[in-house]
Design brief:
CATH topology of the largest domain: UDP-n-acetylglucosamine1-carboxyvinyl-transferase, Chain
CATH class of the largest domain: Alpha Beta
Shape: globular
Oligomer: single chain
Structural class: alpha/beta
């Protein structure tokens, strides 16, 4: 993808449906046996989830699940860690042999804490701690324990198991707590009864069905909100003011950088201003890290972006952003669990690599809008993983300026 610099941006865009909610809505629908899903996101990752649940016996469409006849499956999670981890939990409860695998990039992402929890609960699993995984499903213990220090997806996976078995999950350590809250909300919207007791989450009643409407995605919207903070003004519609998405934090963070913010019940508007570097802990919202690194590069002073699990995403995001921003002339220093950005320098156009990471590709596209000269984003097709119309929306905002 070729990106040419722009002077000012002034436009309106609609946030796509939430990928995280879509995954969770369909897994909740599978447990309920029947549930309508409205405004689901169709992208590579959610297609992997729909295909996984179909393999496990769901009668499924983009409008929801109409019936389930449980059976073991042969699941290809493609590049979706959410699909792989959630499907492993569900497959562990289904009698018979299931296999979960995925793209080579997904085979590098850790699975061991989830596998250990499921084994402790009684599952028979063959794995080195990474994909591929073979599981012989059986009746599991109701009370489970999980270490959520690497990924909150391990906790959410076990919550779906607990919802199926009316069990509980005790959590030691937890990153990205907001994603667990999102899982709880979706299960409750589907009729489950859930209560928290210290570090344990109890599911006292499984989901019963009904309807879930997928809200707009703050994760995808963050790139346009950042563009507004850097280059002019952008309004993003279809963003609920009262939600539990962890990436809602983008609004507060941009305001701390110095951007002008206006919020409505269903939109966020961001206008550029003098931006100054800040210290940000991305542990609870790691998907914001790439675009915040771009905002930091254009802000005066020093920004420190921290996060414990940033090296375990679709790419090593600390390394990826350090390498690519340096190509554009940014002053960045890579540390074990953080990136230090000395901003205020004018970036230059460059040939940069997405590292196969959709959020890196989108972040570098936003960086390129303000650079001197033309940029080329190699591997930009990976945006199909979460935001298929990203470049279409970006062109429209640029044309509307």
């Amino acid at each position: 993808m070729i990106i040419r610099p722009v002077g000012k941006i002034n436009g309106i865009v609609d946030a796509p449906p939430s990928k995280s909610y879509t995954h969770r809505a369909f897994f909740a629908a599978y447990i309920a046996g029947k549930l309508r899903v409205e405004k689901s996101l169709i992208c590579r990752d959610t297609i992997a989830t729909v295909n996984a649940l179909k393999s496990l016996g769901a009668e499924i469409s983009w409008e929801g699940i109409t019936s389930v006849e449980e059976r073991p499956g042969n699941i290809n999670a493609e590049e979706s860690g959410t699909t792989a981890r959630f499907a492993l939990g569900i497959a562990s409860t289904i009698e018979g042999k299931s296999r979960i695998d995925g793209h080579c990039s997904l085979r590098r992402r850790p699975m061991l804490p989830l596998i250990k929890s499921l084994r402790d609960a009684g599952a028979f699993i063959i794995s080195s701690g990474y994909l591929p995984v073979t599981v012989i499903g059986r009746k599991l213990k109701k009370n489970m324990l999980v270490d959520g220090g690497i990924s909150s997806q391990f906790v959410s996976s076990l919550l779906f198991v607990a919802a199926k078995n009316e069990g509980s999950v005790r959590v030691t350590r937890l990153v990205s707590k907001g994603y667990v809250e999102m899982t709880i909300k979706v299960l409750e919207d589907a009729g489950a009864k859930i209560r928290k007791e210290n570090d344990t989450i109890h599911v006292d009643r499984p989901p019963r069905g009904g309807k879930i409407v997928v809200p707009g995605d703050y994760s995808s919207a963050s790139f346009f909100l950042a563009a507004g903070a850097l280059y002019g003004r952008i309004r993003v519609n279809n963003l609920q003011r009262h939600d539990v998405q962890p990436d809602m934090k983008i609004v507060e963070i941009l305001e701390k950088f110095g951007a002008k913010i206006r919020r409505g019940e269903n939109y966020v508007e961001v206008e550029s201003n003098m931006l100054e570097g800040i210290d940000v802990d991305c542990t609870e919202h790691p998907d914001l890290f790439p675009v915040l690194a771009v905002v930091a590069a254009y802000s005066s002073g020093t920004t420190i972006l921290r996060g414990k699990q940033l090296r375990y995403k679709e790419s090593d995001r600390i390394r990826s952003m350090a390498l690519e921003l340096r190509k554009m002339g940014a002053d960045v220093k890579e540390k074990e669990e953080s990136l230090v950005v000395k901003g205020g320098k004018k970036l230059r156009g460059a040939v940069v690599d997405s590292h196969g990471d959709h959020r890196i590709a989108m972040a570098l596209s936003i960086a390129a809008l303000g650079a001197e000269g033309i940029s080329k984003i190699e591997g930009s097709e990976c945006v199909e993983k979460s935001y298929p119309r990203f470049f279409e929306d970006l062109r429209r905002v640029i044309d509307d300026r």
